[in-house]
Amino acid sequence: MEQPNEEHLWLVGVWQEHRERLLRLLALRMPAVLQRRLSPEDLLQETYLACGRRTAFLRAEPEVPLYAKLRRIALQTLTDAERHHLGAGKRDALRESSPAGDNTMDAWAQFADTISSPRTHLEKLERQAMTRRLLGELSARDREILELRHFESLSNSECAAVLGIEAKAASIRYVRALKRFQELVLRESWL
What we know:
Layout: H1 6-29, H2 32-35, H3 40-53, H4 55-59, H5 66-86, H6 103-113, H7 121-137, H8 140-150, H9 156-163, H10 167-190
Helix pairs in contact: 1-3, 1-5, 3-5, 5-9, 6-7, 7-10, 8-10, 9-10
């Protein structure tokens, strides 16, 4: 059996630090149709293997947050898995049945629950429906920055690296998106 080299030991340490965040990311971004074939844990293992092949990329440009690089590899691994499994000719994953669900919308529904404490189940469902409708009014850029900050728990500098913008611009984008969403919620409550 081979002794672990320095690269391997470094990757193990990095992986232990970011594993849970990557698992949350994959669980959030994985389409339900793909989850009928793979679990987020399976995809996380594939991501680790991909990271092992790309340690030079991970170690390059130390000014870029490491999590942003790991996130990119994880999303590339997810895309590869979608191509492989959803494009498979043997058994069509799109025909397999499962409860309908959109992980991102589920996360938005949980976000809706935090707007105020629900008194009844009906109020909760109405708030979730309102949140979905209002989110549809936001631009894709606004939804993206809110998702990165709230669902993936990315820091401002990590958001900046993911979006390819300066940290100050990411901060401004987040504040503006949050303000636009709050304005929509306030407008809705006045109607």
